[in-house]
Amino acid sequence: MKDSPSAYYIHCFAHQLQLTLVAIAKKHLDVEDFFDNVSNVLNVVGGSFKRRDLLRDHQAKKLEQLFESGEVQKGQGLHQERGLQRPSDTRWGSHFKTLDSFIVIFSSIVHVLEMIELEGSTSSDRNQAEYLLTKIKTFKFIFVLHLMLKVLAMSNELSMILQKKNQDIVNAVEFLNITKKRLQDMRENGWESLLHDVSSFCDVHDILIPKLDESYFPGKSKRKSSGVSYAHHLCVEVFFVVIDVQLQELNDRFDVVSSDLLLGMGSLNPVNSFCNFDKGKIMTLAKCYPSEFDDGKIRDLSYQLDTFIIHMRSGNPKFSNLQ
Protein backbone atom coordinates (compact mmCIF):
# COMPACT_ATOMS: atom_id res chain seq x y z
CA MET A 1 0.00 0.00 0.00
CA LYS A 2 2.94 2.35 0.65
CA ASP A 3 4.43 1.62 -2.76
CA SER A 4 1.08 1.86 -4.57
CA PRO A 5 -1.73 3.76 -2.78
CA SER A 6 -4.21 2.57 -5.42
CA ALA A 7 -3.62 -1.10 -4.60
CA TYR A 8 -6.50 -3.24 -3.38
CA TYR A 9 -6.19 -6.34 -1.21
CA ILE A 10 -8.57 -9.18 -2.07
CA HIS A 11 -8.67 -12.06 0.39
CA CYS A 12 -8.87 -15.66 -0.84
CA PHE A 13 -12.52 -16.17 -1.84
CA ALA A 14 -12.57 -19.81 -0.69
CA HIS A 15 -11.37 -18.82 2.77
CA GLN A 16 -13.83 -15.93 2.91
CA LEU A 17 -16.65 -18.39 2.27
CA GLN A 18 -15.44 -20.57 5.14
CA LEU A 19 -15.41 -17.53 7.43
CA THR A 20 -19.12 -16.96 6.79
CA LEU A 21 -19.80 -20.34 8.43
CA VAL A 22 -17.57 -19.43 11.35
CA ALA A 23 -19.51 -16.18 11.72
CA ILE A 24 -22.86 -17.99 11.88
CA ALA A 25 -21.58 -20.30 14.60
CA LYS A 26 -20.20 -17.38 16.61
CA LYS A 27 -23.25 -15.14 16.20
CA HIS A 28 -25.96 -17.72 16.89
CA LEU A 29 -25.88 -19.74 20.11
CA ASP A 30 -28.13 -22.51 18.79
CA VAL A 31 -25.84 -23.07 15.80
CA GLU A 32 -22.74 -22.98 17.99
CA ASP A 33 -24.31 -25.51 20.36
CA PHE A 34 -25.33 -27.66 17.39
CA PHE A 35 -21.80 -27.88 15.95
CA ASP A 36 -20.38 -28.59 19.40
CA ASN A 37 -22.73 -31.57 19.72
CA VAL A 38 -21.91 -32.81 16.22
CA SER A 39 -18.20 -32.59 17.03
CA ASN A 40 -18.68 -34.53 20.26
CA VAL A 41 -20.65 -37.24 18.46
CA LEU A 42 -17.86 -37.57 15.89
CA ASN A 43 -15.33 -37.98 18.68
CA VAL A 44 -17.36 -40.59 20.55
CA VAL A 45 -18.67 -42.69 17.65
CA GLY A 46 -15.33 -42.61 15.85
CA GLY A 47 -13.33 -43.01 19.03
CA SER A 48 -12.23 -46.59 18.37
CA PHE A 49 -12.07 -49.23 15.63
CA LYS A 50 -14.72 -51.23 17.49
CA ARG A 51 -17.21 -48.36 17.40
CA ARG A 52 -16.54 -47.61 13.74
CA ASP A 53 -17.05 -51.30 12.91
CA LEU A 54 -20.29 -51.22 14.89
CA LEU A 55 -21.42 -48.22 12.86
CA ARG A 56 -20.63 -49.95 9.55
CA ASP A 57 -22.31 -53.20 10.58
CA HIS A 58 -25.50 -51.42 11.58
CA GLN A 59 -25.54 -49.50 8.28
CA ALA A 60 -25.15 -52.75 6.34
CA LYS A 61 -27.99 -54.43 8.24
CA LYS A 62 -30.21 -51.37 7.82
CA LEU A 63 -29.56 -51.29 4.09
CA GLU A 64 -30.30 -55.00 3.74
CA GLN A 65 -33.64 -54.47 5.49
CA LEU A 66 -34.48 -51.68 3.05
CA PHE A 67 -33.60 -53.94 0.12
CA GLU A 68 -35.84 -56.72 1.43
CA SER A 69 -38.75 -54.34 2.00
CA GLY A 70 -38.35 -52.86 -1.48
CA GLU A 71 -37.87 -49.33 -0.15
CA VAL A 72 -34.60 -48.99 -2.06
CA GLN A 73 -33.29 -50.62 -5.23
CA LYS A 74 -29.94 -52.30 -5.67
CA GLY A 75 -27.65 -50.87 -8.29
CA GLN A 76 -24.00 -50.41 -9.13
CA GLY A 77 -22.58 -47.29 -7.47
CA LEU A 78 -25.66 -46.81 -5.30
CA HIS A 79 -25.86 -46.84 -1.50
CA GLN A 80 -22.15 -46.58 -0.88
CA GLU A 81 -20.94 -46.95 2.68
CA ARG A 82 -21.11 -43.73 4.67
CA GLY A 83 -18.75 -42.74 7.44
CA LEU A 84 -18.44 -39.82 9.82
CA GLN A 85 -15.43 -37.67 9.06
CA ARG A 86 -14.46 -34.61 11.06
CA PRO A 87 -14.92 -31.50 8.89
CA SER A 88 -11.90 -29.42 8.00
CA ASP A 89 -11.70 -25.96 9.52
CA THR A 90 -10.78 -24.54 6.13
CA ARG A 91 -13.12 -26.39 3.80
CA TRP A 92 -16.80 -25.49 3.51
CA GLY A 93 -17.60 -28.63 1.51
CA SER A 94 -16.33 -30.92 4.28
CA HIS A 95 -18.97 -29.53 6.68
CA PHE A 96 -21.63 -30.19 4.04
CA LYS A 97 -20.49 -33.81 3.63
CA THR A 98 -20.40 -34.36 7.39
CA LEU A 99 -23.96 -33.11 7.95
CA ASP A 100 -25.22 -34.98 4.89
CA SER A 101 -23.77 -38.23 6.26
CA PHE A 102 -25.14 -37.43 9.72
CA ILE A 103 -28.68 -37.40 8.29
CA VAL A 104 -28.24 -40.49 6.12
CA ILE A 105 -26.80 -42.71 8.89
CA PHE A 106 -28.59 -41.08 11.83
CA SER A 107 -30.17 -44.35 12.99
CA SER A 108 -26.74 -46.04 13.01
CA ILE A 109 -25.26 -43.16 15.03
CA VAL A 110 -28.06 -43.52 17.57
CA HIS A 111 -27.51 -47.29 17.69
CA VAL A 112 -23.79 -46.92 18.47
CA LEU A 113 -24.46 -44.32 21.18
CA GLU A 114 -27.10 -46.60 22.73
CA MET A 115 -24.63 -49.49 22.78
CA ILE A 116 -22.01 -47.29 24.45
CA GLU A 117 -24.60 -46.12 26.97
CA LEU A 118 -25.33 -49.73 27.90
CA GLU A 119 -21.94 -51.39 27.49
CA GLY A 120 -19.35 -48.58 27.72
CA SER A 121 -16.17 -49.59 29.51
CA THR A 122 -16.29 -46.61 31.88
CA SER A 123 -19.02 -44.61 33.56
CA SER A 124 -17.67 -41.52 31.81
CA ASP A 125 -18.22 -43.13 28.39
CA ARG A 126 -21.71 -44.28 29.35
CA ASN A 127 -22.68 -40.89 30.74
CA GLN A 128 -21.33 -39.05 27.72
CA ALA A 129 -23.24 -41.31 25.33
CA GLU A 130 -26.43 -40.82 27.35
CA TYR A 131 -25.96 -37.04 27.28
CA LEU A 132 -25.38 -36.95 23.52
CA LEU A 133 -28.48 -39.05 22.90
CA THR A 134 -30.58 -36.55 24.84
CA LYS A 135 -29.11 -33.79 22.66
CA ILE A 136 -29.40 -35.25 19.17
CA LYS A 137 -32.78 -36.92 19.63
CA THR A 138 -34.60 -33.61 19.91
CA PHE A 139 -36.70 -31.69 17.43
CA LYS A 140 -34.48 -28.61 17.88
CA PHE A 141 -31.28 -30.47 16.96
CA ILE A 142 -32.90 -32.07 13.90
CA PHE A 143 -34.28 -28.69 12.84
CA VAL A 144 -30.85 -27.01 12.97
CA LEU A 145 -29.29 -30.06 11.27
CA HIS A 146 -31.62 -29.75 8.28
CA LEU A 147 -31.38 -25.97 8.21
CA MET A 148 -27.57 -25.89 8.18
CA LEU A 149 -27.43 -28.68 5.58
CA LYS A 150 -29.65 -26.60 3.26
CA VAL A 151 -27.57 -23.47 3.84
CA LEU A 152 -24.34 -25.37 3.20
CA ALA A 153 -25.79 -27.12 0.14
CA MET A 154 -26.62 -23.80 -1.49
CA SER A 155 -23.00 -22.70 -1.24
CA ASN A 156 -21.36 -26.07 -1.86
CA GLU A 157 -21.12 -25.63 -5.64
CA LEU A 158 -19.70 -22.13 -5.11
CA SER A 159 -17.17 -23.63 -2.70
CA MET A 160 -16.01 -26.19 -5.27
CA ILE A 161 -15.66 -23.50 -7.96
CA LEU A 162 -13.60 -21.27 -5.66
CA GLN A 163 -11.16 -24.13 -4.96
CA LYS A 164 -10.43 -24.92 -8.61
CA LYS A 165 -6.88 -24.20 -9.72
CA ASN A 166 -8.10 -22.91 -13.08
CA GLN A 167 -10.68 -20.70 -11.41
CA ASP A 168 -12.98 -18.72 -13.71
CA ILE A 169 -13.47 -15.44 -11.84
CA VAL A 170 -16.48 -14.36 -13.89
CA ASN A 171 -18.16 -17.71 -13.29
CA ALA A 172 -17.31 -17.62 -9.56
CA VAL A 173 -18.83 -14.16 -9.07
CA GLU A 174 -21.93 -15.26 -10.98
CA PHE A 175 -22.32 -18.28 -8.70
CA LEU A 176 -21.86 -16.00 -5.70
CA ASN A 177 -24.82 -13.92 -6.87
CA ILE A 178 -26.86 -17.07 -7.54
CA THR A 179 -26.09 -18.33 -4.02
CA LYS A 180 -27.34 -15.09 -2.48
CA LYS A 181 -30.52 -15.20 -4.57
CA ARG A 182 -31.19 -18.81 -3.54
CA LEU A 183 -30.72 -17.95 0.13
CA GLN A 184 -33.13 -15.04 -0.18
CA ASP A 185 -35.65 -17.30 -1.90
CA MET A 186 -35.26 -19.86 0.87
CA ARG A 187 -35.94 -17.16 3.45
CA GLU A 188 -39.11 -16.07 1.67
CA ASN A 189 -40.46 -19.45 0.59
CA GLY A 190 -38.56 -22.26 2.34
CA TRP A 191 -40.00 -22.34 5.86
CA GLU A 192 -42.89 -24.75 5.23
CA SER A 193 -40.81 -27.25 3.25
CA LEU A 194 -38.05 -27.22 5.89
CA LEU A 195 -40.57 -27.81 8.67
CA HIS A 196 -42.10 -30.67 6.68
CA ASP A 197 -38.69 -32.32 6.15
CA VAL A 198 -37.82 -32.02 9.84
CA SER A 199 -41.19 -33.39 11.00
CA SER A 200 -40.98 -36.32 8.58
CA PHE A 201 -37.47 -37.15 9.77
CA CYS A 202 -38.60 -37.05 13.41
CA ASP A 203 -41.54 -39.35 12.62
CA VAL A 204 -39.22 -41.92 11.05
CA HIS A 205 -36.75 -41.81 13.96
CA ASP A 206 -39.30 -41.67 16.82
CA ILE A 207 -38.31 -38.18 17.93
CA LEU A 208 -40.93 -36.20 19.81
CA ILE A 209 -42.44 -33.36 17.79
CA PRO A 210 -43.45 -30.47 20.08
CA LYS A 211 -46.67 -28.52 19.71
CA LEU A 212 -45.44 -25.56 17.73
CA ASP A 213 -48.24 -23.23 18.82
CA GLU A 214 -47.35 -23.61 22.51
CA SER A 215 -44.98 -21.31 24.41
CA TYR A 216 -41.27 -21.74 23.94
CA PHE A 217 -39.15 -22.25 27.06
CA PRO A 218 -35.51 -21.38 26.43
CA GLY A 219 -32.64 -23.40 27.87
CA LYS A 220 -33.45 -25.95 30.54
CA SER A 221 -36.15 -23.83 32.12
CA LYS A 222 -39.67 -25.24 31.99
CA ARG A 223 -41.15 -22.46 34.06
CA LYS A 224 -40.00 -19.20 32.51
CA SER A 225 -41.62 -18.74 29.10
CA SER A 226 -39.91 -16.63 26.42
CA GLY A 227 -43.25 -15.04 25.57
CA VAL A 228 -43.29 -16.48 22.03
CA SER A 229 -44.49 -19.74 20.54
CA TYR A 230 -42.12 -22.57 19.62
CA ALA A 231 -42.93 -21.98 15.94
CA HIS A 232 -42.08 -18.28 16.25
CA HIS A 233 -38.78 -19.12 17.94
CA LEU A 234 -37.76 -21.59 15.23
CA CYS A 235 -38.92 -19.43 12.33
CA VAL A 236 -37.98 -15.91 13.41
CA GLU A 237 -35.15 -16.44 15.91
CA VAL A 238 -33.41 -19.36 14.18
CA PHE A 239 -34.48 -19.78 10.53
CA PHE A 240 -34.60 -16.08 9.59
CA VAL A 241 -31.60 -15.09 11.69
CA VAL A 242 -29.30 -17.82 10.34
CA ILE A 243 -30.13 -16.94 6.73
CA ASP A 244 -29.85 -13.19 7.42
CA VAL A 245 -26.42 -13.63 9.02
CA GLN A 246 -25.27 -15.75 6.09
CA LEU A 247 -26.48 -13.17 3.55
CA GLN A 248 -24.91 -10.31 5.49
CA GLU A 249 -21.60 -12.14 5.76
CA LEU A 250 -21.60 -12.89 2.03
CA ASN A 251 -22.28 -9.22 1.26
CA ASP A 252 -19.61 -8.01 3.70
CA ARG A 253 -16.87 -10.47 2.77
CA PHE A 254 -17.49 -10.39 -0.98
CA ASP A 255 -18.01 -6.66 -1.28
CA VAL A 256 -18.88 -4.69 -4.41
CA VAL A 257 -15.35 -3.37 -4.93
CA SER A 258 -13.82 -6.86 -4.87
CA SER A 259 -16.46 -8.17 -7.28
CA ASP A 260 -16.03 -5.18 -9.62
CA LEU A 261 -12.26 -5.62 -9.63
CA LEU A 262 -12.42 -9.33 -10.40
CA LEU A 263 -15.14 -8.99 -13.03
CA GLY A 264 -13.15 -6.22 -14.70
CA MET A 265 -10.02 -8.37 -14.75
CA GLY A 266 -12.04 -11.31 -16.06
CA SER A 267 -13.38 -9.15 -18.88
CA LEU A 268 -9.79 -8.54 -20.04
CA ASN A 269 -9.02 -12.27 -20.26
CA PRO A 270 -8.04 -13.02 -23.91
CA VAL A 271 -9.17 -16.67 -23.73
CA ASN A 272 -11.59 -17.69 -26.51
CA SER A 273 -11.31 -14.37 -28.32
CA PHE A 274 -12.19 -12.32 -25.22
CA CYS A 275 -15.42 -14.26 -24.65
CA ASN A 276 -15.90 -12.54 -21.28
CA PHE A 277 -15.30 -9.04 -22.66
CA ASP A 278 -17.70 -6.55 -21.10
CA LYS A 279 -17.03 -2.87 -21.70
CA GLY A 280 -19.17 -1.76 -18.75
CA LYS A 281 -17.25 -3.95 -16.30
CA ILE A 282 -13.90 -2.72 -17.62
CA MET A 283 -15.03 0.90 -17.28
CA THR A 284 -16.09 0.19 -13.69
CA LEU A 285 -12.68 -1.36 -13.07
CA ALA A 286 -10.91 1.74 -14.37
CA LYS A 287 -12.99 4.01 -12.11
CA CYS A 288 -11.62 2.10 -9.11
CA TYR A 289 -8.27 3.77 -9.87
CA PRO A 290 -9.01 7.53 -9.95
CA SER A 291 -5.33 8.43 -9.64
CA GLU A 292 -4.64 6.56 -12.89
CA PHE A 293 -7.82 7.44 -14.81
CA ASP A 294 -9.11 10.99 -14.66
CA ASP A 295 -12.28 12.05 -16.52
CA GLY A 296 -10.38 12.60 -19.75
CA LYS A 297 -8.70 9.20 -19.69
CA ILE A 298 -12.03 7.53 -18.85
CA ARG A 299 -13.57 9.04 -22.02
CA ASP A 300 -10.55 7.97 -24.08
CA LEU A 301 -10.74 4.46 -22.65
CA SER A 302 -14.37 4.15 -23.70
CA TYR A 303 -13.50 4.86 -27.37
CA GLN A 304 -10.39 2.67 -27.23
CA LEU A 305 -12.34 -0.32 -25.90
CA ASP A 306 -14.85 -0.09 -28.74
CA THR A 307 -12.04 -0.15 -31.29
CA PHE A 308 -9.94 -2.71 -29.42
CA ILE A 309 -12.53 -5.48 -29.23
CA ILE A 310 -13.50 -5.09 -32.91
CA HIS A 311 -9.88 -5.48 -34.02
CA MET A 312 -9.11 -8.36 -31.63
CA ARG A 313 -12.19 -10.36 -32.62
CA SER A 314 -11.53 -9.74 -36.29
CA GLY A 315 -8.24 -11.57 -35.87
CA ASN A 316 -5.85 -8.66 -36.10
CA PRO A 317 -3.04 -9.56 -33.68
CA LYS A 318 -1.02 -6.45 -34.59
CA PHE A 319 -3.51 -4.15 -32.90
CA SER A 320 -2.12 -3.32 -29.50
CA ASN A 321 -2.79 0.40 -29.13
CA LEU A 322 -4.86 0.11 -25.96
CA GLN A 323 -3.02 2.13 -23.28
UniProtKB/TrEMBL annotation:
Classification via SUPFAM superfamilies: Ribonuclease H-like (SSF53098)
InterPro entries on file: AtLOH3-like (IPR055298), RNaseH-like_sf (IPR012337)
Protein's name in the database: Zinc finger MYM-type protein 1-like
